[in-house]
Structure formats: structure tokens, C-alpha cells
Specification:
The complex is a heterodimer of chains A (294) and B (268).
Chain A lengths: L3 H6 L9 E7 L3 H14 L5 E6 L5 H13 L3 E5 L3 H14 L3 E3 L2 H11 L12 H18 L14 E5 L5 H9 L5 E5 L18 E5 L2 H14 L12 H18 L2 E4 L5 H12 L11 E2 L1
Parallel strand pairs in A: 1-2, 1-3, 3-4, 5-6, 5-7, 7-8
Antiparallel strand pairs in A: 8-9
Helix pairs in contact in A: 2-6, 3-4, 6-7, 7-10, 8-9
Chain B lengths: L4 E6 L4 H11 L9 E4 L8 H9 L3 E6 L3 H14 L3 E3 L2 H11 L7 H23 L14 E5 L5 H9 L5 E5 L18 E5 L2 H14 L12 H18 L2 E4 L5 H14 L1
Parallel strand pairs in B: 1-2, 1-3, 3-4, 5-6, 5-7, 7-8
Helix pairs in contact in B: 2-3, 6-9, 7-8
Classes of the chains: A alpha/beta (294), B alpha/beta (268).
Chain lengths: 294, 268
């Protein structure tokens, strides 16, 4: 097994290193998340890149994740209710020289000794609300980190990526989705600025485009400019030919990506959100969405 | 067996340790119910007291401490007193310190703030979900903000957005035929905001909603001019009677309204 010291010696600039942290869990995703978040706060939320593998339920998948952890020299933090999975992860990590930390066993084992009997390993006994709310908080944290094209390196983690030009309501839509437990990223489409390459590696079924009518965009942008104390008529931002150009550009990219597009012109956020939730839930993709074009 | 007392020792709020411990405890039908928390423990000074208290009864000590010196002092003294001890996440901090080539945050004040913000946000999100769309009105007195408005004025996204900033927001629909819950009168007017919108815009939104539901807009009163105008008028009157601050959300992004409300909440 490679020790920390040996690894460290092999590196030229250890102080500029980022660490990949793989967080593995079964039904204890909430507990795993609380621990991972605690750790990142200890390091001022910098330098640690978290990749989450929650709700793991099969040996094969776990071994696959550990393979990947080994290849990318990641540190593993895990939290499993299943004793079988805990042993599997611990033994595999030990054998393969993966640095790992088992967050659940120490407390559980101590309690087993005190109680003189084994834990029940029954997920039904866990506080169900807590699971739900950590899942939502995790989604919200992710959504903030991935708002407005921030952090393209975490796009791959998204349950859904929303793309669209300015003022199509990407951020509130993502926030709404996050509160339903969906990790939603959004990427603005701006003519002259290439979207991040990571976007093109996301499966099209996980990307959604938003469009809005030019008239409605013009109105919203004019109001926005006046609110900011700027004169709208002087800006490209609200000029109709500029808006048309932006819409054309965005439509081109959406077509290239081959994604579902929603026209949000006359819609409340909830409507679009619910359609996206239905899409994600694996609802049969209809050929055309009302108010949308493909 | 006897009740086991769980001692949580943390240099911050201790909520993470408690969270892990509660999940573990749920897996036993034994009574482990008693929890004693030592928060904001910043050095080994308090360790003797904690261990001697824990030694009086059957107990378990779980700690989340960054400082190695404090941690090892607690580990040694627990062992000497024969008390089971778990250093939760400490070894992980040590490992990451090596990997990152830098020390964890040593500023207790900053850590405490980061932890408090995190759990405050979790609780605000949870509150907003519980109190969405007029549910759990008994919790209204705990709200930092109560949002009122007729159907389709965007109350839910606004509540969610604000919750995400760490404020507990509830929202209640205003429906002419249904009186808002009495308990709203116990909420100070400074915590109540009302959302209004132009009738034309609301008609558009509602018509679209009906179409999405597969209904013919003309077949329902929901999106008619008379109905919408009556609802808006009744809502405005009611909001004024409560002394609520009123925001017109016609063609406004949720973030803009949210920002104004947040500025107000923070200035308070």
C-alpha cells in the first residue's frame, strides 16, 4: 500500500494539489453528504472536488466506482447502512491502496458493543424526512455552484442542464428543480462565447433548452435595464435585432445538441419545472411538447 | 441494558456528529436516547471535565474536532477512563491535510459560521418545503417571511429561492372563496409580503396552464377577465388590511423580487 508520504514525495507542488473525494453511500446518502460537507468546510470549501455516488445497491456498481477511484487517485469517504457493502468497500480499498474513510462503522460498531447485539440494518428505521431534506440541500448546493455556467467541471454531475439566452429564467427554474431534489445546472448561451466543452459531453436527454419570444424578452430586458438605472434604448441588450440574433444563435446550438426545447414565453416556472421532472422521471418522451419545439 | 449516554464533543456546532450518531442509534431498539453536547470546545482545557462526567454513567464519546492536540487528549483520557471513543472524521481531516499540503481552517469563528450557515440553510429549505402552498400553517409564527398571492403569481419559486439564502419562507395562496388561516394575524406585518400581477399577464399564464392540463381555457372561469380581476382586487384589499408590503411581479424575474425582499430582511 502506498502511504501518504510516498505519494506526497512524488509530487512537485503538493500545496497546489486538488483532491478528488468520492463519496459513496446506499440509503445513507444524507449522512454521507453531511460528512462530506463538514470536511470541505474544514478546508474552506477549496481544493476538494466531490463526486457523489449515492443509493448504491449492487456490488458490481460499487466495484466499478472503486476502480475509477483507484485510477483517478481519489480519496474515498463512505457511509453504508449495509454491513456487507461496508466490508466490501473497506477490503477492496485496503487491497488496492485506495485511501478511504468509513464514516458509519466506528459509531455503529461501538453501539453494537454497548448493546451487545448487532444493528438491524433496516432503512425503514431511518428518519425518512432527513434523507429527503439532505438530498434537497445537496441539490440546492450543487445548483448554486453550477449556476450561470459556473464551474463547468461539475456539469457531468447534473441530473439536468438548462441552457438558454439571458432572461429566459434559467436560474429560478434550476432553483425550483433543486428544491425537488434535482441537481440542476444552467449554462447561458451568449453569441461570441463558446459554451464549455463539457456541455457537449452530456447526454442530450439530460439537457433542456429554454426559449422565449423576442417581444417578451425585449420587455423584460428593458425593465431590467431601467431598474438598474440604465437607459435601455442605448443598449444592444434590448435591441430587437440583437435579441433575434441571440435567439437564432441559441436555437442553432440547441438543434446541434438535439435537445428538448421549451418556450417559456407565457409560462410560470412551475409548469416548465414539472414537465422537466416528468421527463427525468423517465416519462415517455412525447414527440412534441405543448408550447415547445424540438 | 442501561441507557447509554452519548457525549458529542465538537469545536463547532456538533450537528454533523449528532447526525451520524442519530442514524446509527436508529438501528437499535435499545434506549440510547440521552445526548449531551459539548459545543465550541476550542482546546484541551475542557477535556478532563467532559471525560469525568462521561465516566459516571455508561456512555460513548463521539467527537468532531480539527485540532489534533485536543483530539488526542480526548482519545487518551477516554481510553484511560474506559469510555468508548469515536474520532469521527478526524482521520479524514489528517489524510486530506497531507494530500492538500495545507492545514485545515484554524479559525474557530469562521468554521462556526460556515457550519451554522449550512445547517441554517438546511432548516430553511426544510421549512419552505413544509410550509409550501398553505401547508403546515401552525408553523407560520416561526417564519421569517410569509408570502401571499393569488394562484400563479410565483409564490413557490420565490419561497424556495429565499429559503436557499437561509430565511424560512412560507407561502399561502389567496383564494376568494377561502379565508386565509387565522394564525396569519399572529405574524407581524413586517414579515408578510404580497405578490400582485397585472390582470392581462395573469390571464395569459393561467390560459397557458389550462392548455397544458389539456383543458379549453374558455371552458373554465379560472382564466377569465372577470374572475382574475375580482381575485386581484380581493387580494389587494386583503393584503392592505394586513399591512403587507406588496410587490408587483408582472414581467419580473424571480431573482429581482427575491433580491428586494432579501435586502429588506437583512436590513432588519
Amino acid at each position: 500500500m502506498v502511504t501518504f508520504g510516498e505519494r506526497w514525495n512524488g509530487r512537485s507542488f503538493p500545496d497546489e494539489e486538488n483532491v478528488d473525494l468520492y463519496v459513496l453511500s446506499d440509503c445513507l446518502s444524507d449522512v454521507a453528504e453531511a460528512c462530506a460537507s463538514w470536511i470541505t468546510r474544514r478546508f474552506d470549501k477549496t481544493g476538494i472536488e466531490i463526486t457523489r455516488f449515492g443509493s448504491l445497491s449492487g456490488e458490481d456498481k460499487i466495484l466499478e466506482v472503486l476502480d475509477e477511484a483507484s485510477r483517478s487517485d481519489a480519496v474515498v469517504l463512505h457511509c453504508f447502512l449495509s454491513g456487507e457493502f461496508r466490508r466490501l468497500v473497506n477490503e477492496t480499498c485496503l487491497r488496492r491502496g485506495i485511501d478511504r474513510y468509513d464514516a458509519f462503522s466506528p459509531v455503529l460498531t461501538t453501539l453494537e458493543q454497548a448493546a451487545g447485539k448487532g444493528a438491524k440494518e433496516d432503512r425503514g428505521l431511518l428518519h425518512p424526512m432527513d434523507n429527503e431534506y439532505f438530498r434537497r440541500v445537496r441539490a440546492v448546493e450543487y445548483t448554486i455552484a453550477a449556476d450561470d455556467g459556473g464551474n463547468p467541471s461539475i456539469l457531468k454531475e447534473a441530473d439536468v442542464v438548462i441552457v438558454g439566452i439571458s432572461r429566459t429564467g434559467k436560474s429560478p427554474l434550476c432553483m425550483y428543480l433543486a428544491h425537488r431534489g434535482v441537481m440542476a445546472a444552467n449554462v447561458p448561451l451568449v453569441p461570441g462565447i463558446e459554451p464549455p466543452p463539457q456541455l457537449f459531453r452530456i447526454p442530450p436527454s439530460r439537457i433542456v433548452g429554454l426559449i422565449r419570444s423576442p417581444g417578451s424578452l425585449g420587455e423584460i430586458r428593458t425593465r431590467r435595464m431601467s431598474m438598474m438605472g440604465l437607459a435601455p434604448e442605448e443598449s444592444n441588450y434590448v435591441r430587437s435585432e440583437e435579441i433575434l440574433r441571440e435567439i437564432e444563435y441559441a436555437s442553432g446550438i440547441m438543434e446541434h445538441l438535439g435537445i428538448v426545447v421549451f418556450d417559456v414565453t407565457k409560462r410560470a416556472i412551475e409548469e416548465t419545472a414539472h414537465e422537466i421532472l416528468a421527463l427525468l422521471a423517465g416519462a415517455k418522451e412525447r414527440h412534441s411538447f405543448h408550447g415547445g419545439a424540438k | 441494558m442501561e441507557t447509554l449516554t452519548l457525549y458529542i464533543v465538537s469545536d463547532s456546532t456538533g450537528e454533523t456528529a449528532e447526525y451520524v450518531a442519530l442514524a446509527a442509534i436508529s438501528q437499535f431498539d435499545t434506549d440510547f436516547s440521552k445526548i449531551v453536547r459539548y459545543r465550541y470546545v476550542e482546546g484541551p482545557g475542557k477535556i478532563d471535565e467532559i471525560v469525568s462526567r462521561a465516566a459516571d454513567v455508561p456512555s460513548l464519546i463521539v467527537c468532531t474536532l480539527v485540532d489534533k492536540h485536543t483530539r488526542s487528549a480526548l482519545a487518551e483520557k477516554s481510553a484511560a477512563a474506559g469510555i468508548p471513543f469515536v474520532d469521527l472524521l478526524g482521520p479524514m481531516v489528517d489524510a486530506l491535510e497531507m494530500r492538500l499540503g495545507r492545514k485545515p481552517l484554524q479559525a474557530p469563528g469562521l468554521l462556526r459560521k460556515l457550519d451554522e450557515d449550512y445547517f441554517r440553510k438546511i432548516k430553511a429549505v426544510e421549512f419552505a418545503i413544509q410550509c409550501d402552498d398553505g401547508r403546515s400553517t401552525e408553523s407560520l409564527p416561526d417564519a421569517d417571511l410569509v408570502i401571499l398571492g393569488v394562484s400563479r403569481t410565483g409564490k413557490t419559486p420565490l419561497s424556495m429561492y429565499i429559503a436557499n439564502k437561509g430565511f424560512k419562507a412560507a407561502n399561502i395562496p389567496l383564494i376568494p372563496e377561502v379565508d386565509p388561516p387565522e394564525i396569519i394575524k399572529k405574524v407581524p406585518s413586517s414579515k408578510i409580503v404580497g405578490l400582485i400581477i397585472s390582470a392581462e399577464r395573469l390571464i395569459q399564464i393561467r390560459q397557458e396552464r389550462l392548455r397544458l392540463l389539456g383543458l379549453e381555457p374558455a371552458a373554465s372561469a379560472y382564466a377569465t377577465k372577470e374572475r382574475v380581476e375580482r381575485e386581484l382586487l380581493a387580494a389587494t384589499d386583503y393584503l392592505k388590511s394586513l399591512g403587507a408590503r406588496i410587490y408587483d411581479v408582472t414581467d419580473r424575474a424571480v431573482e429581482e423580487t427575491a433580491q428586494e425582499i432579501l435586502d429588506f430582511l437583512r436590513a432588519r
